[in-house]
Amino acid sequence: MKPVLELQDIVITVPTRSGRAPVVDGLCLALEPGQTLGIVGESGCGKSLLSLAVMGLLPPGVELRSGDVRLSGRSLQSLRERDMRRVRGNEIGMIFQEPMTALNPVFKVGEQIAEVFRIHRGAGRRQAWNEAVEMLEAVGVSEPARRATSYPAQLSGGMRQRAMIAMALACRPKVLIADEPTTALDPTVQAQILQLIRGLQKDFGTAVIFISHDLGVISQVADETAVLYAGQVVERGPTREMFRAPLHPYTRGLLRALPDPDASEMAEVLFEIKGCVPSPDELPSGCRFNPRCELARAVCRSQAPAPWVRDNIHMVSCWEYEHG
Amino acid sequence: MAEELLRVQDVVKHFELPGALLGASVKVRALDGVSLVLHKGESLGVVGESGCGKTTLSRVILRLLAPTSGQLFFKGADITHLHGRQLRHLRRAMQVVFQDPYGSLNPRMRVREILGEPLRVHFDGSSDQCQALIVEIAHLVGLGEEALDRYPHEFSGGQRQRIAIARALILRPDIVVADEPVSALDVSIRAQILNLLKTLQARLSLSYIFVSHDIGAVRFLCQTVIVMYLGRVVEEGPAEEVFRRPAHPYTIALMASVPSPAHADQDTQPMAMGEVPSPISPPSGCHFHPRCPHRMPVCSDTAPALLPADGGRRVACHLVPARVSAAGSVVIEFSVPQIQPNHKGDLQ
Fold first, then answer.
1. pLDDT tens digits, B62-91
2. Residue B322: its pLDDT value, please?
3. Which of A79, A143, B15, B74 has the most Cβ atoms closer than 10 angstroms to its Cβ?
4. Among candidate residues B137, B155, B136, B156, the one with its CA nearest the CA of residue B147
5. Same structural domain for residues A74 and A126?
6. Phi and psi of B229, rounded to 5°?
């Protein structure tokens, strides 16, 4: 199938004391229609800036140095701001971690959703409002007509996140970017929202990029998963296979470091990945994970590994597999 | 059985919120009759969602908040109303590690001063003795001596949490209350800190009260666990029992909603409907009943008492005693108004 969204060789740089440093470095990903791609990584791996780059919303100072974002084959890089505005919210929707800061506190939730229909679909006020109420119903808000007249602060965290999902999906975008959408929610509510996103995706056929630091969440929602480390994809493959048999030492380490709450035997000591994530201006030479890797050899310290693909679907960048 | 260190008995904590314009003030029942016992060398986990009162409980235990009613005992002595010098003495025995290692360390102090501050308040040794203690504790938590002359901002989140732990341990307390100590940390760092907490516990024979919504971390660190919902304990017992065979419908829902890579193949259905209600106006009867898939008429009228059930646990649910008696092991009189203050209330 032809990918709906392609990221080609993305390089994003931030200013540092000594010039500029890459937070995302040569990243390539492709998303097929209706697919969910999970992007997992720790803080500072560049996952949030990546999603902002797709939307053309990088904050001042942060620069998309090179690379191309293609939506249905069309490059978004060459678009003027006016045309980009038509893409945002219409063809690509986005939901964020904290719906309280993403919603405007002084407008009713219904008005904010209706605005999407008015701007992108040219709907009249009354029609837009009715569609907003329908949208709230679609995302499982009870008494949608009444809730539409609420202000964001009058809703619970879960309700706000539902309202934001309603807004993001109002125009049936081809792509939804979800950046840590459940991190601020309680576990029982998180489970509800994850189920909602999966259900809507099936109904609307939306392709989803789901960004999270939580391997558990990713394992529940993503068809495919990409693991980011220091701005690069170190492993990518079908989610189930990757969680069952991770290839990269970093992915293996992350999974082993996670205590399983209902394991029959609890380990006495958790597996540790020693050290911490390098900052973008102090990246080690060779493989960026080598100072923390148990398997590091001389070649790991001097040369970056090339990607190796197993069975056409599971990619890993690690010297361990170079001769496999 | 190890020596009993801390006993919290039927503690209630209400907060008064100013009401709407000219209205009467509103009462938030943050803690609604919570009891627990902590033994020497034991780790007690407190889990629950936002608004369940777990942070209020930790503050009451630390005597940072005075309970509205109920009692606290430390090594058998009533500490509910301590003040002045005696309270300061107690503080030496009970220390705290907070969630946010960015907000809990003074950015204008070097690590040496941060670690030295508890000594200045509680310890009257010479300056050389203090310095020796500071170096010793830094080594114990895995900080090099060169770290002592740096400022907090020069450290990563994980290293800062090591500093916070060192500060809590420098007075060699009996109890450390850790309120979400690993929630702000990355996965790869979280394991380092959890391992450190466990190692230190064995070396210094510490007891922990570990407040967290991270069930995996609680399972790793704690032998005993209490599950809270809107200010009440709904289930308590050995961590392995409670997490592997949860009995209260809320615990079951909570466990089912923890996404774990180990269960990636299962399509988990959320079992709790709706969201946690506001603690300002909790539901009548059992607080969980509006969200409970098994609710019965009695649940909206009568709050269930926390009663013994299988596996050495106690559960507050109208359903659970029935289940146990069906198995023929324990039959519980349903009209028992409240469990007797527990002299046999050890949770092991």
1. 999 999 999 999 999 999 999 889 999 999
2. 53
3. B74
4. B155
5. no
6. -145, 120
Could you say which of A150, A170, A190 is where a domain stops?
Answer: A170
CA distances from A168 to A162, B56, B163, B246, B259 (A): 10, 37, 42, 37, 24
Task: Provide the whole-model pTM.
Answer: 0.87
| Residues A187, B244: C-beta atoms closer than 8 Å | no
CB neighbourhood size of A27 (10 A): 22
> What residues of chain B lie within 8 A of the CB of A42, using their CB?
186-188
- The torsion angle over the Cα atoms of residues B289, B294, B296 and B302, rounded to 10 degrees, is -40
- Both A209 and A232 in a single domain? yes
- Is the same domain home to A138 and A185? no
**Cβ neighbours of residue A86 under 8 Å, at least 6 residues apart?**
A120
Per the structure, the complete domain to which residue A166 belongs is given by: 98-170
SS (H, E, C) B253-280: HHHHHCCCHHHCCCCCCCCCCCCCCCCC
Q: In the predicted model, what is the mean pLDDT of residues A200-223?
A: 92
With CA atoms as reference, report the closest residue to B204 among B177, B178, B170.
B170
Residue reference for tokens 């996952």 = A47
Interchain proximity A187–B218, CB inside 8 Å: no
Residue A66 and residue A136 in one domain = no
Segment A112-137 shows an average pLDDT of: 94
Give CA separation, B17 vs B28, B34, B235, B279, B281, in Å.
7, 21, 29, 12, 12
Tell me how far apart the alpha carbons of residues B319 and B332 are, in angstroms, rounded to a whole number.
12
Counting residues of chain A whose pLDDT is more than 70, the rounded percentage is 99
- The CATH homologous superfamily for domain B4-18+25-228 is P-loop containing nucleotide triphosphate hydrolases (3.40.50.300)
Shortest CA distance to A319 belongs to which of A4, B101, A311, A302? A302
Residues of chain B with Cβ-Cβ distance to A225 below 8 Å are none
Q: Per-residue pLDDT averaged across B123-148, rounded?
A: 92
Q: Which residues of A touch B243 (CB under 8 A)?
A: 261-262
- A94: which DSSP letter? E
Q: What is the CATH number of the domain that holds A84?
A: 3.40.50.300
* Encoded tokens for A306: 């090339």
ipTM comes to 0.84
Q: Does A214 lie in the same domain as A78?
A: yes
Residue ranges of the domains in chain B? 4-18+25-228, 230-258+274-326
Indicate the residue of A213, A214, A263 with minimum beta-carbon distance to B259. A214
Q: Which of A188, A270, A273 sits opposite B272 (nearest CB)?
A: A188
| A75/A24 same-domain check | yes
Nearest CA in chain A to B190: A257
Q: How many CB pairs under 8 A join A and B?
A: 131
Are A254 and B187 in contact (CB < 8 Å)?
yes
Contact B200, B206 (CB under 8 A): yes
The last residue of one of the domains, among A170, A195, A224, is A170
What is the count of structural domains for chain A? Answer: 2
Same domain, yes or no: A58 and A183: yes
Do residue A260 and residue B216 have CB atoms under 8 angstroms apart?
yes
- The per-residue pLDDT of chain B, averaged, comes to 86
Residue B270 has pLDDT above 50, yes or no: yes
| pLDDT of residue B197 exceeding 60 | yes
State the nearest Cα–Cα gap between B130 and chain A, in angstroms.
29
Within this chain, do residues A80 and A140 fall inside the same structural domain, yes or no? no
